[in-house]
Design goal:
26% strand; Rossmann fold; binds S-adenosylmethionine; alpha/beta
Amino acid sequence: MAKRVCPWWLGYLLASPIRRLMCDPAKVLAPYVREGTTVLEPGPGMGFFTLELARRVGPSGRVVAVDLQPRMLAGLKRRAARAGLLERVDARLGAPDSLGVADLAGTVDFVLAFAVVHELPSMDVFFQESAAALKEGGTLLLAEPRGHVSSIEFESELRAAAQSGLNPADRPKMRGNHVALLTKA
Ligand SMILES: C[S@@+](CC[C@H](N)C(=O)[O-])C[C@H]1O[C@@H](n2cnc3c(N)ncnc32)[C@H](O)[C@@H]1O
């Protein structure tokens, strides 16, 4: 069955500063992203997390943000340009069944998959592509909203991740979300 993709206009709400009251990107990302880091962000929407990622990676790092919807990417680029961070963001249009990141093989330190995996047609392909992009010892932060994803579904995502060699290293707490930090062995 086709998965439901978040409508582009919801991108404005998701990137709204009001969301910070529930979830502060700086606090979420601080443990994982530092100067010089290479980040892959599938499904960035209009960039609620992307701008903070770009700030944290600094001029020597980069953020590859892959979304399916051109209007999400247009909003993301507009916001990154306004913040003077566009140079650090490689915004790419993905295909529904592939992120198209074979060129990143073994170069990514951190993948942020926030509220996206439940929208993808194949989580198996997603975890395979992410694992291939990550360096050994690289990490993937998987977060899924409890309102859309049940505990059973989240556990099945973790099993799919493990099939690609991404194993849980931690289960950080975040209000309203299932969260796991996965490491590439
Ligand atoms: C619920 S939004 C979350 C946006 C962002 N991660 C956040 O938390 O604010 C899901 C995003 O994933 C994108 N998406 C859905 N399917 C995708 C696919 N196959 N490849 C890339 N992006 C996808 C949607 O276009 C949307 O921008």
